[in-house]
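[job 0412] stage=complex_fold ligand=zinc ion status=START
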Amino acid sequence: MVLTHGNLELLEKLEKDIKDTEDMTQPISPENSIGRVSRMDAINNKSVMEASLRNKISKRNKLKLALSKVDNENFGICVNCKQNINPARLMYMPESARCIRCADRS
Ligand SMILES: [Zn+2]
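[job 0412] stage=complex_fold status=DONE, emitting structure tokens
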């Protein structure tokens, strides 16, 4: 499985990214020192960061899922037509068990 090495690196990067994003979603302190407007900004930023965090976590989980399947000899092979699934597709949708053509047809 050619993707394994790249996937592991990507996973590491994502884990780090998730940590950094988590740091940015810490509770906003209620003190007035940053002012009302900045506080509003901080709250807006926080929800953006939280959305992005959820996104990254779900990506990470998919990637982990993909990596856990790498040892499976059927990984990367379309369950429908038994052709290899495009590696680019597997990177983005590692949970996909069908190639693009078969997925399009359904
Ligand atoms: Zn197929």
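The chain has a mean pLDDT of 82.
[job 0412] exit 0
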